[in-house]
């Protein structure tokens, strides 16, 4: 009996130590992807290109096979509006901090000058140079949420954090530079581990690695939860399947251009690197960094039996506090696969920090609360799909 307790104690100790090791490795990946080196994984300073190079090297380090013949890369292009230069906004004599006090709407063109503001409604101001109205719109917002645009408009929109400007504003001095890039070359990074029983059948894990990048030379949007966390899970799963050879082949696809409109996944389903009909199930991972309130499963209502199976696994293994169903939604890279008839879930965690598409989504505050439990759920679900007919 003493020996049995000793063995159980050892198993518990090593299980806890392994979970800590997994979380520590995930944290390292997230910190790397959120570092200044990758400039927010956007289009300024070629941050997204550097992230793609990092992923290519990581796929090689994990001994993955390329889906695209001899390359992990699947290239495509997109137009994109960028802000690599001057980013100066002064309101009534106060110099503002980009990303903290204001953002410039992603589709905006550059503008320079000093302007008088006049109120259009309770949250919107228009601008004049005292001769004529100029193409500048100023809006007060409760939260600053940035994005990526694939077009450039003929006006500039500046969004101010409402709490920082409770009263009326009268004057604004701005210097904003943008560069519209007609064809920015992007790449999806695609690899797989060959299955030992049914190598022509695939379980697919996906995550987008791009984020918003830089707004000017100071404001960086690191994208820790969105979606360095998902990429870290993708890499973690590579390690798992290297150690636990799967019956089916397992593909790992890191998409570019998600923030610009699900571009990488759209390109992939239009140019698949193996028949989409060979995909037994696809799990898209985004916002993997919290989990103290559980997870949400998009497409739960589309694939009810699979959702019930996922819930059952979670309940049996006592992993997450809640597995919440959600219907079909075009809110991440699973969408285009679903439209092509591929069974797919999009899973994201709930609870914890609320930073999203802002400068506060940083690695240091990402808790990874249920990271290891979520990984166990994903691998158990994938195993159940490999065992089904």
Main attributes of the structure:
389 residues, alpha+beta, Aminopeptidase, 2 domains, 9-stranded mixed sheet, 8-stranded mixed sheet, 19 strands, 30% strand
Describe the 3D structure.
This protein has helices at 2-33, 47-61, 224-243, 263-270, 304-317, 334-339, 371-387; strands at 65-66, 73-82, 87-91, 94-95, 102-104, 111-119, 124-128, 133-141, 156-161, 171-176, 179-193, 198-208, 213-215, 219-221, 248-255, 279-285, 295-298, 323-326, 344-349. It is an alpha+beta fold. The chain has two domains: 25-80 and 182-387, Aminopeptidase (3-Layer(aba) Sandwich), CATH 3.40.630; 86-176, no CATH class. α1 (2-33) crosses α3 (224-243) and α5 (304-317) crosses α7.
Brief description of this entry?
By secondary structure, the protein is an alpha+beta fold. It is 29% helix and 30% strand.
Following the backbone from N to C, one meets helices and strands in this order, namely HHEEEEEEEEEEEEEEHEHEEHEHEH
**Count of individual beta strands:** 19
Query: What's the CATH topology label of the largest domain?
Result: Aminopeptidase
Distance between the terminal alpha carbons, to the nearest Å? 42 Å
What portion of residues belong to β-strands? 25-35%
Assembly annotation: single chain
Look at the structure and give the mean pLDDT: 94
What's the architecture of the largest domain in CATH terms? 3-Layer(aba) Sandwich
Which class of the largest domain in CATH terms? Alpha Beta
Query: What is Rg?
Result: 23 Å
Largest sheet: 9 strands, mixed
Number of helices: 7
Q: Would you identify the regions where 5 or more consecutive residues have pLDDT less than 50?
A: 4-15
